[in-house]
Amino acid sequence: MPRAASICLVAGCPKRTVRLGRCVDHAPLERAWSRTSARNRVRDTTRRQWDRHVRPQALVRDGFACVRCGKRERLEVDHAKPIAQGGTWTLDNAQTLCRDCHIEKTAQERRKK
Fold first, then answer.
1. Torsion of CA 36, 39, 45, 48, to 10 degrees
2. What is the pTM of this model?
């Protein structure tokens, strides 16, 4: 059974809808809703800045070595204080850790909860 025709959502417009509840004259050219929320757009932008700027600076500052054990292989830049616990995305909250130390640190943080 076909749907009943509806009128445009714009006040005072009696034309039939064609897209997203609006007539030909009022239909948006782009999608009405973005699939990415404002919160996620900010997070993605911040993450990009971390990857492009903060991460390389932390590696250079720490001499391309783990700050805990001194290894120079499989390095990762970690948040000293996790974001979920109020940490920031800045260089002063970044530290270079090897993969093993990072796993160990993350496990310790989870045990504290």
1. -90
2. 0.62
